[in-house]
Specification:
The complex is a heterodimer of chains A (about 120) and B (about 850). Chain A is built from no helices and 10 strands. Chain A is mainly beta and about 120 residues long. A 4-stranded antiparallel β-sheet of chain A has the order 3-4-5-9, with no helix packed on it. A 3-stranded antiparallel β-sheet of chain A has the order 2-1-10, with no helix packed on it. Chain A has a 3-stranded antiparallel β-sheet with strand order 6-7-8, with no helix packed on it. In chain A, about 45% of the residues are buried. In chain B, about 30% of the residues lie in helices and about 20% in strands. The chains are: A mainly beta (about 120), B alpha/beta (about 850). Chains A and B meet through strand 3, strand 6 and strand 7 of A and helix 4, helix 18 and helix 19 of B. The complex binds siroheme (SRM), flavin-adenine dinucleotide, iron/sulfur cluster (SF4) and FE2/S2 (inorganic) cluster.
């Protein structure tokens, strides 16, 4: 996660092993909403930006419902932890750790993301 | 040689579970809770082609639940805990000497611990032709699929052998499949195990009234077949014959203990693998048996799921050798509460009154199918009871079992209003009373969750104690206890909308309206709770405030377009994409068809679009057409064509007006007294797009015959020869409510003015997600108060209500037309921000009945792909 200053030519980049993969312009992200990105190996990532400009990236697949839709969920904070609520059955996932706030036996992948 | 799995260089001991049914799955969860999945390799052999599912709720398949809905297995859980699950691959031999299990496919696994959870098989009495075509049992999803298929193609009549709990469920299912159904029970009454004679009689009357034929006191002697060997009837022990095309045997279950017998484990006289109080088999410390296949230390085989769950927990604790918390299973409560064919039946404790010297209190009313019996000891201790027809008191009564209730027993069984009846609140329960018998949670533990673990809501208490997460029958009592406990400890029960706002929805509405607060951020930063100001809000308040802003948009100077600026971030996913999300990530499209009236041209356009995009089409329950399976990037293309043809958004996604249904009315119908179609169209066009606390539905009927079902709507209109009657607060759904008459014989203008006021008053004062029905029942004064406000103008706000509605009507614009003309908004309708032309590969379809349906393949679990993973 990186604090993203408000400039137009900044790109969102995702860390894959050693490399940073450029995804899109920072401006493509509406604060409070997500977008989905496709990785070269076919995995899908959900990217979010909060009101303060923090960026988050987690796996796009909802482990409960199976569909790749987490990028379309509503975001918010719960006890200081940023989360996205799945649009399917509303389970919430911590955006920094990937842990499901409603069932801590479930966790989704998280990715390092920056604006550069 | 005992170990096969190697992690790093450290060998891990292996636990093999045979049977992935309800109890098997609970056992896996208990292993995970105790950390055993981290230290052990866990291998599961599952005979059925699918992972564990909710067998208890099996029958709900016939009321629309899919096999996926019934699943108990969270694939992520198995993956996370590295559980190896082999579907469709039963264990066939156990070599206890070598500690080795072999499966049907030839898989060989060496175990340190073997747990048998093989369940039961349905007992089929040895009558001639019992295996004929058309004979079934009722145990697995596969059984149901087979029955459904046969009933659909080859049967009009069905008979169930056995009038116990499962037999009644099966009969209900046959009836639901459209067959005329018979129940044949050997005993003199239905449900002989659970209820006594009086209860059986009450049940019989109610069930016969539903159109099922019940034959008690007769046995089945032979199945009669035709030349091709298919069932045509059955011969009964009284000499009579019963014609039927389909037979379901439901004559009890027997433990599946063959695997155990074959490897020399001791089984009971009437079956069941003998285990001790730790659920360990009496012969072999390495082998456990749990669930319906086990003969418990108290000499009983339990045919219910709750005792099985307890056994699962006990076995896991024993395997963990947790010194601090050693569990034992010494017997269990056989209480049950069921809703059979819509009739409540509950029995708890010593229901049959077998204790010495016990007394009964019985209330019976055969007119209404009520029967209630309590069994009481001489000293007043409640021992058990039976409730038929009304099991409302079950949760409380069950918890009082074993103690002396603080009020007289008669008052507990008398119906409300019959003199002495009292409501016995759960606050009167002693701390040791078991409130949740599925998970054995006492009242004291629940209070502790509130007082010591600072839980303040039912979901928190469920998570903390597990109470309420089994059959769910205790959740109501749970809610009462939590509220009582919070109030007792002086905590003011927080009525705030969510963690971000201490105000109710109604209070926020007043703030937004009075102070013209027109952004969410402004509202949060100025009126949010201390810690929430300046933050990101949450998924509860964002859409709720988004809806308030949208309802009041023209008045408070906000944009009425829900995708504008900040508002876009507040919307639920459906509103954000102006379509309804489906289970595989695709969307459905519902154009508005006001009043259900549509031209042939309109139908053709919809048909062409659905054909060109390959969409599944269905006539909805709301008199319009739904097209399913649109990918997110197709939505703008589809809507461009719909808008071109004159269609607009149907708001099937929004908490807003859905449909105003109509009957054909006066124009065509010989009974009609007003033009119901025109009125329905007028109303639908007037209130379209109006965002509200929950969805709004309406209907207009052309006469009192009520073909449009107006009395089940939030606002329903029925024509009279003098004008219109307006009904409000109706609801279909899970808790149907008949609408109440608000005003009679109204002119067109009077009608519309009254609806304007009614809707705006509702939008102003209702809670989030509160339909008009629940709102009307909740607000102080109820219907009379609402009538005072909107008809008599007792609060002097009617002018304001009307003007708010006028603003809405004047500023309405079709969201889809706006969206397809806005390139910036359209850019959001892509699958991937970095690959807009690549469709989401998870969204796939397979054919069904000449159309498509979502393809949701079973996902890979554990270390290797699932066996039988092609199974859907
Ligand atoms: C499509 C349709 C079923 C059909 O194939 O016919 C349908 C489909 C859904 N209904 Fe419905 N309901 C449909 C008519 C009904 C009706 C019948 C009616 O309107 O006359 C009812 C009972 C009447 C009532 O609402 O009082 C109905 C009572 C519900 C309820 C229960 C509401 C309640 O107050 O208890 C829900 C759940 C909810 O809203 O919380 C629901 C929720 C849903 C949702 C939105 C569930 C969801 O969140 O995914 C379904 C969305 C399907 C989709 O993605 O398009 N649906 N639903 C019907 C659409 C009608 C339309 O043209 O807009
Ligand atoms: C229609 C219906 C309604 C019911 N309603 C209720 C109710 O309301 N309340 C209640 O408490 N109980 C109810 N029950 C009973 C409840 O479902 C059972 O008590 C519960 O399922 C028992 O769990 P189990 O894991 O012991 O057995 P099961 O759930 O039957 O699971 C056993 C599994 O083991 C598998 N298996 C067997 N042999 C092998 C082998 N050799 N190798 C691999 N796998 C094997 C079987 O295929 C099965 O999948 C109902 C049952 C039915 C059928
Ligand atoms: S409600 Fe009355 S007018 Fe309308 S279709 Fe039925 S019978 Fe005809
Ligand atoms: S009694 Fe079944 S969940 Fe509590």
């Amino acid at each position: 996660m990186t604090l993203a200053p408000e400039t137009t030519d900044l790109k969102i980049q995702l860390r894959l092993d050693e490399d940073w993969l450029t995804i899109c312009d920072l401006t493509a992200l509406t604060p409070g909403r997500g977008v989905a990105a496709l990785l070269p190996d076919g995995r899908q990532v959900a990217l979010f930006r909060d009101r303060a400009g923090e960026l988050y990236a987690v796996d796009n697949r909802d482990p409960f419902g199976g569909a790749a839709v987490l990028s379309r969920g509503l975001t918010g904070t719960h006890q200081g932890r940023p989360f996205v609520a799945s649009p399917l059955l509303k389970q919430r996932f911590d955006l920094t750790s990937g842990v499901c706030l409603d069932d801590d036996t479930v966790r989704i992948e998280t990715y390092e993301v920056r604006a550069a | 040689m005992t170990t096969t799995a190697i992690v790093g260089d450290r060998p891990r001991p292996t636990i093999v579970l045979v049977g992935h049914g309800m109890v098997g799955q609970r056992f896996l969860e208990a292993l995970a809770e105790r950390g055993l999945t981290a230290t052990h390799r866990v291998v599961v052999l599952c005979e059925e082609p699918r992972p564990a599912y909710d067998r208890v709720a099996l029958t709900s398949y016939f009321s629309g639940k899919t096999p996926e809905d019934l699943s108990l297995t969270d694939l992520e859980f198995l993956r996370e805990h590295g559980v190896e699950l082999h579907l469709g691959d039963p264990a066939v031999t156990v070599d206890r000497e070598a500690r080795r299990v072999t499966s049907r496919s030839g898989l060989v696994v060496d175990y340190d611990v073997l747990v048998l959870a093989t369940g039961s098989y349905p007992f089929v009495p040895p009558v001639p032709n019992k295996d004929a075509e058309g004979c079934f049992v009722y145990r697995t999803i596969e059984d149901l699929l087979a029955i459904e298929e046969y009933a659909r193609t080859k049967a009009t009549t069905g008979a169930v052998v056995g009038g116990g709990l499962l037999g009644l469920e099966a009969a209900g299912a046959l009836k639901g499949l459209g067959l005329s159904a018979h129940i044949v029970e050997f005993a003199p009454r239905l449900m002989p195990v659970q209820v006594d004679e009086g209860g059986g009689a009450a049940l019989l009357r109610t069930i016969e009234e539903m159109g099922l034929s019940v034959h008690t006191g007769v046995g089945t002697q032979e199945i009669i077949t035709d030349e091709a060997g298919a069932v045509t009837g059955m011969k009964l022990s009284d000499g009579s014959e019963l014609a039927t095309d389909l037979v379901v045997f439901s004559a009890g279950v027997r433990p599946r203990d063959q695997l155990a017998r074959d490897c020399g484990l001791t089984v009971g006289e009437r079956g069941g693998i003998s285990v001790d109080e730790q659920c360990r088999t009496v012969n072999d410390p390495h082998v456990f048996a749990i669930g319906e296949c086990a003969l418990a230390a108290d000499g009983r085989v339990y045919g219910l799921v709750a005792p099985g769950y307890e056994q699962a927990a006990t076995a896991a604790a024993t395997i963990a050798a947790d010194e601090t918390e050693q569990l034992t299973f010494t017997g269990a409560d056989l209480s049950t509460k069921l809703k059979l064919l819509g009739v409540d039946v509950a029995s708890f404790g010593d229901a049959q009154g077998t204790a010495e010297d016990c007394l009964d209190v019985v209330y019976s009313d055969s007119r209404s199918g009520l029967y209630k019996k309590l069994v009481i000891a001489r000293d007043g201790t409640l021992l058990g009871g039976i409730l038929v027809g009304d099991a409302e008191a079950y949760g409380t009564l069950r918890a009082f079992t074993g103690s002396v209730p603080p009020v007289s027993p008669e008052s507990l069984v008398l119906p409300a209003g019959a003199g002495e009846s009292v409501q016995l609140g759960p606050s009167a329960l002693p701390d040791e009373a078991i409130v949740c018998s599925c998970h054995n949670v006492s009242k004291g533990t629940i209070r502790g969750a509130v007082t010591e673990h600072s839980c303040t809501t039912v979901p928190e208490v469920k998570k903390c104690t597990k109470a309420g997460t089994g059959c769910g029958s205790c959740v109501k009592v749970l809610g009462q206890l939590v509220t009582a406990e919070l109030e007792a400890s002086g905590v003011e029960v927080d009525k705030g909308l969510c963690g971000c706002f201490a105000q109710t929805r109604e209070e926020l509405y007043e703030i937004v309206l009075a102070l013209r607060v027109n952004t969410y951020q402004d509202l949060l930063d100025r009126y949010g709770r201390d810690g929430a100001r300046g933050g990101d809000g949450c998924d509860i308040c964002k859409p709720a405030v988004g809806s308030i802003i949208a309802s009041l948009a023209p008045t408070i100077g906000a944009s009425g377009y829900v995708l504008d600026g900040e508002q876009a971030a507040l919307q639920e996913t459906n509103d954000h994409f102006l379509a309804n999300l489906q289970k595989n990530g695709s969307y459905s499209v519902v154009p508005r068809i006001p009043g259900g009236e549509i031209t042939p041209e309109g139908l053709i356009v919809i048909g062409e679009i659905a054909r060109d995009f390959g969409l599944y089409t269905k006539i909805t329950g709301g008199q319009r057409i739904d097209m399913f399976g649109a990918r997110v990037e197709q939505l703008p293309l589809i809507w461009t064509r719909l808008v071109d043809a004159g269609f607009e958004s149907g708001h099937a996604y929004g908490k807003s007006l859905r449909t105003v249904k109509s009957c054909v009315g006066q124009t065509w119908c010989r009974y009609g007294v007003q033009d119901s179609v025109r009125m329905a169209i007028d109303l639908e066009l007037r209130y379209r797009g109006l965002r509200s606390p929950h969805k709004l539905k309406s209907a207009v009927s052309g006469c009192a015959r009520e073909c449009a079902e107006a009395q089940s709507k939030d606002f329903g209109i029925i024509a009279t020869s003098n004008g219109w009657n307006l009904y409000v607060g109706g609801n279909g759904g899970a808790t149907p409510r008949h609408a109440d008459l608000l005003a009679q014989d109204l002119s067109d203008t009077e009608l519309i003015r009254l609806i304007d006021r009614f809707l705006m008053f509702y939008i102003r004062t209702a809670d989030r997600l509160e339909r008009t029905s629940t709102w009307l029942d909740r607000i102080p004064g109820g219907l009379d108060h609402v009538r005072d406000v909107v008809v008599e103008d007792s609060l002097g706000i009617c002018e304001e209500l009307e003007s708010l509605m006028k603003d809405h009507v004047a500023h309405y614009a079709d969201e889809w037309a706006t969206t397809i003309n806005d390139p910036e908004k359209l850019a959001r309708f892509v699958s991937f921000v970095n690959a807009p032309d690549t469709p989401d590969p998870v969204v796939g379809f397979v054919p069904e009945r000449d159309q498509i349906k979502p393809d949701l393949p079973l996902l890979t679990i554990g270390h290797r792909p699932l066996e039988g993973s092609a199974q859907r």
